[in-house]
Design goal:
Blueprint: H1 5-19, H2 21-24, E1 34-35, H3 36-50, E2 52-57, E3 66-71, E4 74-75, E5 81-86, H4 90-97, E6 100-106, E7 113-123, H5 126-132, E8 150-165, H6 169-182, E9 189-195
Parallel strand pairs: 1-9
Antiparallel strand pairs: 2-3, 2-6, 4-5, 5-8, 6-7, 7-8, 8-9
């Protein structure tokens, strides 16, 4: 039998309520979307805690995408991420075909999670390579910072999602212990959308 639009909306809300029961048991607000400068501040905070991410390319609906760990060389004041990569790498080839990229960060075992979507571009800029260069990079670029294979990847985030704690790990742990002892959901979590 056909449902009226109002009945369908009520059913959808009931399913959402049931599926989100853990968040609804929270005694404190645990959801906050961030935009603009506030989002950029959270992105920088979480990215600096992790310093590495899963860098994902070749993103197509219904298909597995390509993933590899990468160190963030820098995050600038405009919120852009900077990486070094070889010009003959698979990721460079994939970015040349489609600039869409996803980054996944995990700063600790229980908090500081984030994913970002955005666009990447490959840049051959010797000054930027000099700025981003670290001696450990010679492991991959054996001729040092003058290795002709080095390129720069600039990632510009567009949106994402974060999961974090409101008051830090120590307070979150204490709240979890109190919650476990009292049978109440008290985990100090906060999550939300990130919009640039």
């Amino acid at each position: 039998s056909a449902c009226s639009p109002i009945h369908a909306d009520q059913e959808k809300q009931q399913k959402t309520d049931i599926m989100d029961s853990i968040n609804q048991q929270q005694t404190e607000e645990n959801f906050k979307n961030l935009q603009g400068a506030e989002a950029a501040k959270k992105i920088k905070e979480l990215a600096e805690k992790a310093n590495t991410c899963f860098f994902c390319t070749a993103i197509q609906p219904g298909k597995a995408f390509e993933t590899r760990p990468m160190s963030v060389q820098k995050m600038d004041d405009d919120g852009n991420f900077w990486f070094l990569s070889a010009n003959d790498s698979h990721k460079n080839k994939e970015i040349a075909l489609d600039r869409s990229v996803k980054l996944f960060f995990q700063g600790s075992a229980h908090s500081d999670f984030m994913y970002l979507t955005g666009k990447a571009e490959i840049i051959s800029d010797r000054n930027k390579i000099e700025e981003l260069w670290e001696p450990i990079m010679k492991t991959w670029f054996t001729e040092g910072k003058d290795d002709t294979r080095i390129t720069v990847i600039k990632f510009v985030p567009e949106e994402g999602y974060y999961w974090d704690t409101k008051h830090g790990k120590a307070i979150a742990f204490l709240k979890m212990m109190v919650g476990a002892a009292s049978g109440k959901t008290m985990d100090d979590s906060i999550e939300g959308k990130l919009s640039m």
